[in-house]
Amino acid sequence: MSRFNNPKALTALDPLPGRSSPGETEASEPSSMGRKGGPDPAAPVAAAEEFPEAKPSPVHKACFVMLCLYLLSAYANDFSYRLLHAKAYISTVSIALLPILFAATGGAFRSVQGPFGKWYLAFGAWLAVCAPFSSWKGNTLSVLFEFYSKSFLLYFAICACVLRLRELKRLMFVLGIGAVVVVFTCFKYGRPGEGGRFAVPESVFSFFANANELALQLLLGMIVLLFYVLRKGFWLRAFSLCAIAISFYYLLRTGSRGGFLAAAVTSVAFFLLSKHKLRLVLLASAALPVVFLAVPSEARHRLFMIVGSQAEAATEADGATIASQRAREQMLRDSIRMTLTHPLFGAGPGDYAGANAKYLENLGLRAIWLETHNTYTQVSSESGIPGFIFFVSAIIACIRMNYRVYRQTSRIKGLEDYAAVSLCMLLSIIAFSVDAFFDQQAYTANLPILTGLSTATYLLARRALGAPPRIESADAFAAKDDPRNTVRNTLASAT
């Protein structure tokens, strides 16, 4: 098995100038290592001439442009409906051309070179295996078609198109534009809805109209904008910080307890990973009280009712909140029961609500057509325990992959962009994995986009660190007479 199948093995060659040739011994290498054998963080990284950046072909460039257009087309559709009362057909054209251009790039193999890709490919393949055994085959085929064509494909397209740091940063810029558009939409069209929860009604975008999904999009947008806080000049940093503060304000107004908890866990993770903990404490001490006080009291009260009982309900709104929480607890139990009664293939992708309603009818109870409101039990109840294992393993592999890329690149001068992107992707996956306990996100585009960027960063970081552009065999990496293994093993063991 290749070492790159192991998330622990983000291998790296010596990227520093003056390194020895393969024929020289380790003792003859120049002193570019610290006392503990690690790379000198202050030394700049020299471009490895034998592993230069890949040059995208015209097909790669066209595929990348189409990918960016598709990522922005959903926002265009929303504004087109509002302003022109008609659909903008950018999404239709781009999603039709994207698979063709992706196939023409010949880069499908890149997607499985990272630790995440094989698990996610196994998850996608297992969903197809479960389809013939679904309880409502027509609905399953519709769900899978939407998933494969509009979500699953994005992971592979990102890996195939992003061949240089330039494309990686441009894709982050596209996602940053999307984050700003979400904030503007909240400002222009958002208003409190049922129970005082903030959302954007009359939107063709489901996550604008749903308070819980809007909270997740705002949180992911905040993390993308964090990239510009970490890497850019004063004015762009100031703008990004303002957009992050406004996004957090709207997130709190949604009253989404899952989004709030995900934001809290992500903030703790960022604090632990940051090198400027004192600055973060001072900034949070000044900004958070202002943002919290600006949020309506009803939203604040709902957020802190994560744990409660019916006896604690002081108002009618409290009773509705606690009833909603208890309903979700019942849905969790029902989805676990569905998993245990269909352990191998599940009820079928997208078929949990129908299968659960039929089960309740057979018991003489009122049928309830509700989703699981939990991504993990959504996967386990609809694709069985194997699908659950593939999905969770993919998320864990992605978290570990991003963490190791961040740890290695953050120590070396010249790789700050890779460190910033990997940190943002690490925080995004953490936010997604926490919010997934409170919403169904298994078939949305969020995970493919985040993990596509993560894998692209992993592959580019390997090249920047001097690793071979192709996967080598285990025997090649096990060759003890290769002096480059010293740096590979040092950087791998450091994490």
Summarize the structure.
The protein is mainly α. Helices cover 65% and strands 1% of the residues. Helix 8 (234-253) packs across helix 10.
3D structure, described in words:
65% of the residues lie in helices and 1% in strands. The two termini are 21 Å apart. The chain has a two-stranded antiparallel ribbon. It has 18 helices and 2 strands. It is mainly α and 495 residues long. A hairpin with a 5-residue loop joins strand 1 (191-192) and strand 2 (198-199). The model is unreliable at 1-51 and 469-495 (pLDDT under 50).
Write the layout of secondary structure elements.
Elements: H1 58-84, H2 90-105, H3 115-130, H4 137-161, H5 165-189, E1 191-192, E2 198-199, H6 206-209, H7 211-231, H8 234-253, H9 257-273, H10 277-294, H11 297-303, H12 316-341, H13 352-362, H14 375-409, H15 416-435, H16 446-464, H17 474-478, H18 484-494
Antiparallel strand pairs: 1-2
Helix pairs in contact: 1-2, 1-4, 1-5, 2-4, 3-14, 4-16, 5-7, 7-8, 7-9, 7-15, 8-10, 9-15, 12-14, 14-15, 14-16, 15-16
Categorize the overall geometry.
globular
SSE string, helix = H, strand = E? Answer: HHHHHEEHHHHHHHHHHHHH
**Structure classification:** mainly alpha
What is the β-strand count?
2
- Mean pLDDT across the residues is 78
Number of helices: 18
